[in-house]
Specification:
24 strands, four-stranded antiparallel β-sheet, globular, mainly beta, Neuraminidase
Length: 313
Protein backbone atom coordinates (compact mmCIF):
# COMPACT_ATOMS: atom_id res chain seq x y z
CA UNK A 1 0.00 0.00 0.00
CA UNK A 2 1.19 3.65 -0.46
CA UNK A 3 3.34 5.03 2.36
CA UNK A 4 0.75 7.68 3.32
CA UNK A 5 -2.03 5.08 3.51
CA UNK A 6 0.20 2.73 5.50
CA UNK A 7 0.99 5.47 8.06
CA UNK A 8 -2.73 6.29 8.38
CA UNK A 9 -3.56 2.59 8.82
CA UNK A 10 -0.87 2.29 11.51
CA UNK A 11 -2.33 5.27 13.38
CA UNK A 12 -5.81 3.67 13.26
CA UNK A 13 -4.42 0.40 14.62
CA UNK A 14 -2.65 2.31 17.37
CA UNK A 15 -5.86 4.12 18.32
CA UNK A 16 -7.79 0.86 18.38
CA UNK A 17 -5.12 -0.62 20.65
CA UNK A 18 -5.41 2.33 23.02
CA UNK A 19 -9.20 2.04 23.12
CA UNK A 20 -8.92 -1.68 23.83
CA UNK A 21 -6.60 -0.99 26.75
CA UNK A 22 -9.13 1.48 28.17
CA UNK A 23 -12.19 -0.69 27.47
CA UNK A 24 -14.74 -0.76 30.29
CA UNK A 25 -15.08 -3.85 32.38
CA UNK A 26 -17.01 -6.93 31.42
CA UNK A 27 -19.32 -8.31 34.08
CA UNK A 28 -19.23 -11.88 32.83
CA UNK A 29 -17.70 -14.60 34.98
CA UNK A 30 -14.39 -16.47 34.65
CA UNK A 31 -12.33 -18.80 36.84
CA UNK A 32 -9.93 -17.82 39.63
CA UNK A 33 -8.53 -19.30 42.82
CA UNK A 34 -6.39 -18.20 45.77
CA UNK A 35 -5.87 -18.98 49.48
CA UNK A 36 -9.06 -18.33 51.50
CA UNK A 37 -9.49 -15.59 54.12
CA UNK A 38 -10.43 -16.40 57.71
CA UNK A 39 -13.13 -19.08 57.97
CA UNK A 40 -14.88 -18.46 61.30
CA UNK A 41 -16.92 -15.30 61.79
CA UNK A 42 -17.85 -13.67 65.11
CA UNK A 43 -21.55 -13.82 65.97
CA UNK A 44 -23.66 -10.91 64.82
CA UNK A 45 -27.35 -10.10 64.71
CA UNK A 46 -29.45 -10.46 61.62
CA UNK A 47 -29.56 -12.76 58.62
CA UNK A 48 -28.22 -12.98 55.09
CA UNK A 49 -30.38 -14.26 52.25
CA UNK A 50 -28.75 -15.45 49.03
CA UNK A 51 -29.12 -17.80 46.08
CA UNK A 52 -27.34 -21.16 46.20
CA UNK A 53 -27.04 -24.23 43.97
CA UNK A 54 -27.35 -27.49 45.90
CA UNK A 55 -27.71 -30.81 44.10
CA UNK A 56 -28.07 -29.00 40.80
CA UNK A 57 -31.05 -26.91 41.97
CA UNK A 58 -30.81 -23.14 42.55
CA UNK A 59 -32.92 -21.92 45.47
CA UNK A 60 -32.95 -19.20 48.10
CA UNK A 61 -31.26 -19.79 51.46
CA UNK A 62 -30.73 -17.68 54.56
CA UNK A 63 -28.07 -17.90 57.26
CA UNK A 64 -28.31 -16.50 60.77
CA UNK A 65 -25.27 -14.33 61.53
CA UNK A 66 -25.74 -15.21 65.21
CA UNK A 67 -25.72 -19.01 64.95
CA UNK A 68 -24.39 -19.67 61.44
CA UNK A 69 -27.31 -22.05 60.79
CA UNK A 70 -28.50 -22.11 57.18
CA UNK A 71 -32.13 -22.64 56.18
CA UNK A 72 -33.83 -23.08 52.82
CA UNK A 73 -36.56 -20.67 51.69
CA UNK A 74 -37.61 -22.07 48.28
CA UNK A 75 -37.76 -25.59 46.84
CA UNK A 76 -39.06 -25.15 43.29
CA UNK A 77 -37.16 -27.02 40.53
CA UNK A 78 -36.84 -23.74 38.61
CA UNK A 79 -34.02 -21.26 39.14
CA UNK A 80 -34.74 -18.89 42.05
CA UNK A 81 -32.29 -16.06 42.51
CA UNK A 82 -31.36 -12.40 42.99
CA UNK A 83 -33.12 -12.06 46.37
CA UNK A 84 -33.86 -8.76 48.13
CA UNK A 85 -35.46 -8.40 51.55
CA UNK A 86 -38.61 -6.34 51.96
CA UNK A 87 -38.00 -3.27 54.17
CA UNK A 88 -39.91 -4.84 57.08
CA UNK A 89 -37.93 -8.09 56.86
CA UNK A 90 -41.07 -10.18 56.54
CA UNK A 91 -40.58 -11.34 52.97
CA UNK A 92 -38.05 -11.70 50.15
CA UNK A 93 -38.47 -10.58 46.55
CA UNK A 94 -36.73 -12.63 43.88
CA UNK A 95 -36.71 -13.67 40.24
CA UNK A 96 -37.50 -17.18 39.01
CA UNK A 97 -37.88 -18.98 35.69
CA UNK A 98 -40.31 -21.51 37.19
CA UNK A 99 -43.00 -20.31 34.77
CA UNK A 100 -40.76 -20.74 31.73
CA UNK A 101 -39.23 -17.26 31.69
CA UNK A 102 -37.96 -15.12 34.54
CA UNK A 103 -40.72 -13.35 36.46
CA UNK A 104 -40.96 -11.64 39.85
CA UNK A 105 -42.05 -13.43 43.02
CA UNK A 106 -42.19 -12.84 46.75
CA UNK A 107 -41.85 -15.44 49.52
CA UNK A 108 -42.34 -15.16 53.28
CA UNK A 109 -39.20 -14.83 55.40
CA UNK A 110 -39.96 -18.28 56.85
CA UNK A 111 -40.07 -19.80 53.37
CA UNK A 112 -42.92 -21.72 51.77
CA UNK A 113 -45.09 -21.06 48.73
CA UNK A 114 -44.07 -18.03 46.68
CA UNK A 115 -46.52 -15.52 45.19
CA UNK A 116 -46.09 -14.27 41.64
CA UNK A 117 -46.14 -10.48 41.48
CA UNK A 118 -46.68 -9.94 37.75
CA UNK A 119 -47.80 -12.23 34.93
CA UNK A 120 -46.73 -11.51 31.36
CA UNK A 121 -44.55 -12.91 28.58
CA UNK A 122 -41.59 -10.65 29.34
CA UNK A 123 -38.36 -11.41 31.17
CA UNK A 124 -38.53 -9.56 34.51
CA UNK A 125 -36.01 -9.79 37.33
CA UNK A 126 -33.55 -7.99 39.61
CA UNK A 127 -36.21 -6.35 41.76
CA UNK A 128 -35.53 -3.98 44.66
CA UNK A 129 -38.31 -2.66 46.94
CA UNK A 130 -38.35 1.02 47.87
CA UNK A 131 -37.43 1.90 51.48
CA UNK A 132 -41.09 2.53 52.37
CA UNK A 133 -42.14 -0.79 50.82
CA UNK A 134 -44.58 0.89 48.46
CA UNK A 135 -42.79 0.52 45.15
CA UNK A 136 -40.70 -2.02 43.31
CA UNK A 137 -37.86 -1.21 40.92
CA UNK A 138 -37.03 -3.99 38.47
CA UNK A 139 -35.76 -4.80 34.99
CA UNK A 140 -38.08 -5.84 32.19
CA UNK A 141 -38.07 -6.23 28.41
CA UNK A 142 -41.85 -5.98 28.06
CA UNK A 143 -41.45 -3.08 25.62
CA UNK A 144 -38.53 -4.59 23.69
CA UNK A 145 -35.08 -3.62 24.99
CA UNK A 146 -34.37 -4.15 28.68
CA UNK A 147 -35.23 -1.10 30.75
CA UNK A 148 -35.77 -0.03 34.35
CA UNK A 149 -39.36 0.03 35.58
CA UNK A 150 -40.92 1.26 38.82
CA UNK A 151 -44.26 -0.20 39.95
CA UNK A 152 -46.61 0.82 42.74
CA UNK A 153 -47.26 -2.38 44.71
CA UNK A 154 -50.68 -1.25 45.98
CA UNK A 155 -52.19 -0.10 42.69
CA UNK A 156 -50.07 -1.88 40.08
CA UNK A 157 -49.39 1.44 38.35
CA UNK A 158 -46.10 1.26 36.47
CA UNK A 159 -43.75 3.47 34.51
CA UNK A 160 -40.52 3.07 32.60
CA UNK A 161 -37.91 5.11 34.47
CA UNK A 162 -34.85 4.43 32.28
CA UNK A 163 -34.58 3.41 28.63
CA UNK A 164 -31.10 3.04 27.17
CA UNK A 165 -31.61 1.91 23.60
CA UNK A 166 -32.37 -1.23 21.62
CA UNK A 167 -29.37 -3.34 22.69
CA UNK A 168 -29.03 -2.12 26.27
CA UNK A 169 -28.37 -4.47 29.18
CA UNK A 170 -29.16 -3.03 32.60
CA UNK A 171 -28.47 -4.41 36.05
CA UNK A 172 -29.04 -4.38 39.79
CA UNK A 173 -31.23 -1.37 40.65
CA UNK A 174 -30.78 -0.19 44.25
CA UNK A 175 -32.79 2.53 46.03
CA UNK A 176 -31.30 5.28 48.16
CA UNK A 177 -32.57 5.23 51.75
CA UNK A 178 -34.79 8.27 51.16
CA UNK A 179 -36.38 6.72 48.07
CA UNK A 180 -35.45 9.65 45.80
CA UNK A 181 -32.76 7.96 43.68
CA UNK A 182 -31.89 4.60 42.18
CA UNK A 183 -28.42 3.44 41.23
CA UNK A 184 -28.02 0.83 38.49
CA UNK A 185 -25.65 -0.37 35.78
CA UNK A 186 -25.99 -0.24 32.00
CA UNK A 187 -23.91 -1.03 28.93
CA UNK A 188 -25.32 2.04 27.17
CA UNK A 189 -22.86 3.58 24.69
CA UNK A 190 -19.55 2.86 26.46
CA UNK A 191 -19.80 -0.58 28.05
CA UNK A 192 -21.03 -1.33 31.56
CA UNK A 193 -21.05 1.77 33.73
CA UNK A 194 -22.76 2.86 36.96
CA UNK A 195 -25.60 5.39 36.69
CA UNK A 196 -27.71 7.33 39.17
CA UNK A 197 -31.29 8.32 38.29
CA UNK A 198 -33.72 10.64 40.07
CA UNK A 199 -37.02 8.82 40.58
CA UNK A 200 -39.10 12.00 40.36
CA UNK A 201 -37.97 13.24 36.94
CA UNK A 202 -35.94 10.40 35.41
CA UNK A 203 -32.81 12.53 35.07
CA UNK A 204 -29.66 10.40 35.29
CA UNK A 205 -25.89 10.72 35.32
CA UNK A 206 -22.94 8.35 35.13
CA UNK A 207 -21.01 7.69 38.36
CA UNK A 208 -18.25 5.30 37.32
CA UNK A 209 -15.10 6.56 35.66
CA UNK A 210 -15.27 6.04 31.92
CA UNK A 211 -12.02 4.06 31.63
CA UNK A 212 -12.95 1.66 34.45
CA UNK A 213 -16.68 0.98 34.20
CA UNK A 214 -18.66 -1.02 36.75
CA UNK A 215 -21.65 -3.19 37.58
CA UNK A 216 -23.75 -4.45 40.54
CA UNK A 217 -24.04 -1.16 42.49
CA UNK A 218 -25.65 -0.88 45.94
CA UNK A 219 -26.42 2.21 48.00
CA UNK A 220 -25.13 2.77 51.54
CA UNK A 221 -27.81 3.79 54.03
CA UNK A 222 -26.24 7.23 54.40
CA UNK A 223 -27.16 7.96 50.76
CA UNK A 224 -23.74 9.37 49.95
CA UNK A 225 -21.85 6.18 49.13
CA UNK A 226 -22.27 3.48 46.49
CA UNK A 227 -20.35 0.21 46.33
CA UNK A 228 -19.91 -1.56 43.00
CA UNK A 229 -17.84 -4.12 41.07
CA UNK A 230 -14.91 -2.89 39.00
CA UNK A 231 -13.27 -5.37 36.66
CA UNK A 232 -10.62 -4.54 34.08
CA UNK A 233 -10.94 -5.66 30.47
CA UNK A 234 -10.51 -9.48 30.32
CA UNK A 235 -9.15 -9.47 33.88
CA UNK A 236 -9.25 -12.64 35.98
CA UNK A 237 -10.05 -10.61 39.09
CA UNK A 238 -12.45 -7.87 40.09
CA UNK A 239 -12.38 -5.29 42.85
CA UNK A 240 -15.15 -3.90 45.03
CA UNK A 241 -15.00 -0.12 44.97
CA UNK A 242 -16.77 2.49 47.10
CA UNK A 243 -17.76 5.73 45.37
CA UNK A 244 -18.34 8.86 47.48
CA UNK A 245 -21.10 10.87 45.78
CA UNK A 246 -20.18 14.15 47.50
CA UNK A 247 -16.42 14.06 47.14
CA UNK A 248 -16.56 12.21 43.78
CA UNK A 249 -13.73 10.04 45.12
CA UNK A 250 -13.29 6.28 45.27
CA UNK A 251 -11.55 3.72 47.43
CA UNK A 252 -11.04 -0.01 46.99
CA UNK A 253 -12.68 -2.18 49.69
CA UNK A 254 -11.94 -5.66 48.27
CA UNK A 255 -8.94 -6.48 46.09
CA UNK A 256 -8.64 -10.24 46.52
CA UNK A 257 -6.95 -12.15 43.67
CA UNK A 258 -10.29 -13.55 42.50
CA UNK A 259 -13.62 -12.59 40.98
CA UNK A 260 -15.43 -10.66 43.71
CA UNK A 261 -19.06 -9.77 43.04
CA UNK A 262 -22.49 -8.90 44.51
CA UNK A 263 -21.49 -6.42 47.27
CA UNK A 264 -24.00 -5.08 49.78
CA UNK A 265 -23.66 -2.96 52.92
CA UNK A 266 -24.94 -4.20 56.28
CA UNK A 267 -27.87 -2.20 57.75
CA UNK A 268 -25.56 -0.40 60.19
CA UNK A 269 -22.94 0.23 57.51
CA UNK A 270 -20.09 -1.38 59.48
CA UNK A 271 -19.48 -4.27 57.07
CA UNK A 272 -20.22 -5.62 53.62
CA UNK A 273 -21.24 -9.03 52.32
CA UNK A 274 -20.27 -10.26 48.88
CA UNK A 275 -19.57 -13.36 46.78
CA UNK A 276 -16.07 -14.45 45.78
CA UNK A 277 -14.59 -17.45 43.99
CA UNK A 278 -11.33 -17.07 45.92
CA UNK A 279 -11.52 -20.78 46.92
CA UNK A 280 -12.97 -22.09 43.65
CA UNK A 281 -16.77 -22.13 43.84
CA UNK A 282 -18.47 -18.85 44.68
CA UNK A 283 -19.14 -18.47 48.41
CA UNK A 284 -20.56 -15.66 50.55
CA UNK A 285 -18.17 -13.63 52.72
CA UNK A 286 -18.43 -10.76 55.19
CA UNK A 287 -15.81 -8.07 55.66
CA UNK A 288 -15.61 -5.54 58.48
CA UNK A 289 -14.90 -2.09 57.09
CA UNK A 290 -12.99 -0.76 60.10
CA UNK A 291 -10.07 -3.18 59.80
CA UNK A 292 -10.68 -5.25 56.67
CA UNK A 293 -11.17 -8.50 58.61
CA UNK A 294 -13.13 -11.04 56.54
CA UNK A 295 -15.02 -14.26 57.26
CA UNK A 296 -16.66 -16.93 55.17
CA UNK A 297 -20.42 -17.40 55.60
CA UNK A 298 -21.40 -20.32 53.32
CA UNK A 299 -19.68 -23.72 53.37
CA UNK A 300 -20.03 -27.06 51.65
CA UNK A 301 -20.56 -27.89 47.98
CA UNK A 302 -22.49 -25.62 45.66
CA UNK A 303 -21.88 -21.98 44.69
CA UNK A 304 -23.65 -19.13 46.51
CA UNK A 305 -24.24 -15.63 45.13
CA UNK A 306 -26.14 -12.37 45.63
CA UNK A 307 -26.32 -11.87 49.42
CA UNK A 308 -28.68 -9.34 51.03
CA UNK A 309 -28.80 -8.36 54.71
CA UNK A 310 -32.12 -8.58 56.53
CA UNK A 311 -33.19 -5.06 57.58
CA UNK A 312 -33.03 -4.12 61.25
CA UNK A 313 -36.56 -3.54 62.54
Amino acid sequence: MPARTERRFSRVLGLLGLLASLAPLSCSDAGSSAPPPSESAPPSGGELVYERVVGGNQDLYATSLQTGVERRLTTDPGQDGLPRWSPDGRSVYFGSDRSGNFQLYVVAAEGGAARRIRTNAATEWQADPSPDGGKLAFLTNQEGAEHLFVMDLATGAERALVRHGKKSILGNPSWSSDGSRIVFSSNWRVGHQIYLVNVADGQSRRLSWIHKGGCEPRFHRDGRRVIYVSRGHHSEKSRLVEHDLQAESERVLIDWPALNYDPVYSPDGTEIAFASNVTGDYAIYRQRLSDGKAWRVTHGPGPARYPDYKPVR
